[in-house]
Amino acid sequence: MTPPTATVETDRVEAEVHELTIRSQALEVIDAASYETAGEFLRGLKGYEQNVRDLLDEAIQQAHATHKTLTGKRKVLLDPAKAAEKLVKVKMATWVRAEEAKAAEAARIAEAAAQAEAKRQAEEEQLAAAAEAEANGDLAEAEAILCEEPTPAPVAPIAPKPAAPKVSGVSIRKVWKAQVTDLLELVKAVAAGTAPITLLKADPAALNSYAKSWKEQAALPGVRVWADDVVAAGR
Questions:
Q1: I need a surface site. Which of 50, 99, 111, 178 has the fewest CB within 10 A?
Q2: Is 167 inside any structural domain?
Q3: Measured at the alpha carbon of residue 226, what is the angle toward residues 221 and 228, in degrees to the nearest 5?
Q4: Does the structure show a pLDDT above 70 at 1?
Q5: Are 229 and 220 in contact (CB under 8 A)?
Q6: 64-114 pLDDT, tens per residue?
Q7: Number of structural domains in the chain
């Protein structure tokens, strides 16, 4: 339970911050005198901020220590389970990839066999048609038939059979990924319009560092460089 004195002090600080908020909204900086007043107000804020820290920092540190201890204990208990989960998932995914490769090869062989059979049947039909023409005394027609390229019947693609069996609560899906192997080539592709500009992302930290180094002399195509006026205040 929070001590009564701490509750009273917290109420006082909350009332004080409300007053500070109202004063900051009402304060206008229109001349040198009001600028100095604003500066004094900032210095007063620093004192208020220190009072808040004095009031709450110790309790926060105690809560942080408790949180750190409990999260550490949780980590000790969960990490082995996460490692076991990762290991088993890798083994399962490795097996699925191997089975998918086998299924794909089996489908390829079956499709090639079906295509070969369709070609054989087309050739047999061609020979039968030529023999029939020859039997009817039409040698020219028979020769013409034999000179044609046999046209096998279309063979429907054979899809590989699913590799992974159904397991309750477990699923597997393809997660496609990409990795940049040549940044310059990617930039060229974006510039040429063959790749979307969304594949490139500006680095704010690098841009700000460049602006900080070059200041007024900073000049980059497509980049705006400016300086903010940042007011600092002490107690």
A1: 178
A2: no
A3: 160
A4: no
A5: no
A6: 999 999 999 999 999 999 999 999 999 999 999 999 999 999 999 999 999
A7: 2
Q: Tokens 């600092």 identify what position? A: 232
Q: What are phi and psi of 170, to 5 degrees?
A: -125, 135
Cα angle 154, 155, 158; round to 5: 155
User: What pLDDT sits at residue 95?
Assistant: 92
* C-beta of residue 58 within 8 angstroms of C-beta of residue 86: no
Strand partners, 170: 167
Contact 171, 147 (CB under 8 A): no
Q: Alpha-carbon distance 135 to 152, whole Å?
A: 24
DSSP 6-57: HHHHHHHHHHHHHHHHHHHHH----SHHHHHHHHHHHHHHHHHHHHHHHHHH
The CA-CA-CA angle for residues 142, 143, 146, to 5°, reads: 90
Q: What token pair was written down for 186?
A: 């990617």
Domain span at 185? 181-214
Whole-prediction pTM: 0.60
| Same domain membership, residue 188 and residue 149 | no
Q: Which residues contact 17 (CB under 8 A, 6 or more apart)?
A: 48
CB atoms within 10 A of CB 100: 15
Instruction: Provide the token pair at 57.
Output: 């920092």
Contacts (Cβ under 8 Å, ≥6 apart) of 93? 172
Length of the chain as a residue count: 235
Do 41 and 131 lie in one domain? The reply is yes
Q: What is the pLDDT of residue 3?
A: 56
Same domain membership, residue 147 and residue 78:
yes
Q: Look at residue 63 in the predicted model and tell me its pLDDT.
A: 96
